[in-house]
Design a protein that fits this description.
Layout: E1 4-9, H1 16-30, E2 36-41, H2 47-54, E3 59-63, H3 80-85, E4 90-93, H4 96-101, H5 106-118, E5 122-127, H6 131-135, H7 139-154, E6 163-166, H8 180-195, H9 199-204, E7 206-210, H10 218-222, E8 229-232, H11 239-249
Parallel strand pairs: 1-2, 1-8, 2-3, 3-4, 4-5, 5-6, 6-7, 7-8
The structure holds 1,3-dihydroxyacetonephosphate.
Length: 250
């Protein structure tokens, strides 16, 4: 069985003062939880702060995006090497809030995934369907296309040791989480899709659920066989609430 992984995605929230308080809360509250891995993905400017506060604790840190290019004249972009300079171990790739607002294609997302993976950073690939797509019954097709783009561009072995987060867009920030059965069905589908090409990669992959996870619904989700943890937005902005979610995973 996989050790559970809980990832905080702070999105564009925080300040030096607020982060310090929140991270100190994380450190104190999560210390006794030895059976869960925790990562916090902070906005770029706060990577140095996360590094100095979290170094030597069991909490790892990462970013919410990275450039598909390694270096060069790409104003406003941040490279994988820059993330590593600040000790980041994880990076979110293809979050739907970026994919829609900043027009990220599946191909660009696949390249970012490959860049992270080939530089020993763990990519957290976000996939998921809109409400219209679910109601039309094409959610598996939508998610399959996101996964297949990576498989066809770089091979299924890219998924070995990586993380996929199933985040149905209709569940993000709405308070309306997927049911454990809905999430489990999609997680099983994702693992199977990758297993058809590379069984070992599929087995070593962690699949997180994201979308309105809170301390009340976390246990029901995390007990499902293919749910290996969660990607947490709003619930990560309060140390007590985040502790409840991590405790469920622990
Ligand atoms: P919420 O937990 O706020 O629904 O956000 C989920 C998410 O988008 C995490 O990446």
């Amino acid at each position: 069985m996989h050790r559970k992984l809980v990832v905080a995605n702070w999105k564009m929230h925080g300040s030096l003062a607020a982060n310090q308080q929140l991270l100190e809360g994380y450190i104190q509250r999560l210390k006794p939880l030895e059976n869960v891995d925790v990562v916090v993905c902070v906005p770029y400017p706060y990577l140095g702060q996360a590094q100095s506060l979290l170094q030597g604790t069991s909490i790892a840190w990462g970013a919410q995006n990275l450039s598909k290019d390694l270096a060069g004249a790409y104003t406003g972009e941040v490279s994988v090497a820059m993330l590593q300079d600040f000790g980041a171990t994880h990076v979110i790739v293809g979050h739907s809030e970026r994919a829609t607002a900043y027009c990220e294609s599946d191909e660009n997302i696949a390249t970012k995934f490959m860049q992270a993976k080939s530089h020993a950073l763990t990519p957290i690939l976000c996939v998921g369907e809109t409400l219209i797509e679910r109601e039309a019954g094409v959610m598996e097709m939508v998610v399959a296309k996101q996964i297949d783009t990576i498989i066809s561009m770089y091979g299924a072995s890219m998924f070995a040791g990586a993380v996929v987060a199933y985040e149905p867009i209709w569940a993000i920030g709405t308070g309306l989480a997927a049911t454990p059965e809905q999430a489990q069905a999609m997680h099983e589908f994702i693992r199977g899709r990758i297993a058809a090409h590379d069984k070992d990669a599929a087995n070593s992959l962690k699949i997180l659920y994201g979308g309105s996870v809170n301390s009340q619904n976390a246990v029901q989700l995390f007990v499902m066989q293919d749910i290996n943890g969660g990607l947490i937005g709003r619930g990560s902005l309060n140390a007590e609430e985040f502790e409840g979610i991590c405790r469920a995973a622990n």
